[in-house]
Amino acid sequence: MREIESIIQQYAQEPGIIAGVCSAEPFTEIRDILNESETPFVNYDVKTRIDPAGSMPNCKGIIVIGVSYNKKITAEFDVFSLTRGRFSINACGTDYHITVRKHLEELAALITEQYDLEYQIYVDTGPLVEREILYRAGLAWRGKNNTAVSDKIGSMFNCGYMLVNIPFVNAPRLKPRCRSCKRCLICCPTGALSKDSFDYRRCISYLTQKSGDLNPYEARLIGNNLYGCDICQVVCPYNRDKEIGEIQDEDEIFPDTNGILSLTRREFALKYKDRAFFWRGLDVLQRNARAAQENNTNR
Ligand code: SF4
Ligand code: SF4
């Protein structure tokens, strides 16, 4: 193993972190399926989405990391409350765009001590399909809930990658390990998941992030969720006992929807500028809060 790979492997010894490498060959294997299960938040053309050289012409390899956000919820929640909504666990704590980028910058600094490294970092901002990089790096396998699942940290993690000027070879691909389990398919409340496909148009996580109005059917589907949905991951046995922290504060995960509806733009920025949903803006959050209140009332 080269020194650079051992630096990366050493970094991945930290709890809640996975890291690996792969080649920068175009991801031609996903060309034909790109638009089937992808949410329409990405605006790049197909060529740029599959070819790392489209983002960095001298790219020779990719370094990828996953950072767990899996936390135990110890905050108490009044299940009969008509005004409380819910953020996904991923939306609690500091915005992962900030934390994952920090990890990648730390790793780049360690490598730069010994290598002439040129790199570009992406956390949700790049054209490549992150989970395909994870599969190619042998770090995760595809679960029936349409997430990348790692043996070490499960599927509740955020991913970022670095295009670099150093070549790497691919690791062996991991085979899916769901076997006969169907928990996520059974527990998804909207039927977005089926044995062979994922319909993002019915997924609460997508609906709470999309811009514009929700039609009455979509508004009903989101239930009391304000941003994201955890169900198909919380029920997954590969996420069990892999928590790396706790959520103790009720308002952090189950905020009062009246409070959200009364926020001004300035208050929203002050209160939530370091949270993962801040990029979506106050209008979308308040739209979801109105739907959550109505759904709570009609339960
Ligand atoms: S995030 Fe929620 S709605 Fe989307 S597939 Fe998973 S359980 Fe279903
Ligand atoms: S809940 Fe079961 S079927 Fe779904 S991803 Fe996890 S292991 Fe696979």
Average residue-wise pLDDT: 94
Instruction: State the strand order across the main sheet.
Output: 1-2-8-5
Large-scale geometry:
globular
What is the radius of gyration? 20 Å
Distance between the termini: 58 Å
Order of helices and strands: HEHEEEHEHEEEHHHEHEHHHH
Low-confidence segments, given as residue ranges, are none
Largest pleated sheet: 4 strands, antiparallel
> Which secondary-structure class do the elements indicate?
alpha/beta
- The strand count comes to 10
* Helix share, percent: 25-40%
Q: Which compounds are bound in this model?
A: iron/sulfur cluster
Query: What is the beta-strand fraction?
Result: 5-15%
Give the helix tally.
12
What is the strand and helix layout of this fold?
Elements: H1 3-11, E1 17-23, H2 46-50, E2 61-68, E3 72-73, E4 86-87, H3 96-112, E5 119-122, H4 130-136, E6 141-142, E7 148-149, E8 157-164, H5 183-187, H6 204-207, H7 216-221, E9 225-227, H8 231-234, E10 246-247, H9 250-253, H10 257-261, H11 265-272, H12 282-297
The structure holds iron/sulfur cluster (2 copies).
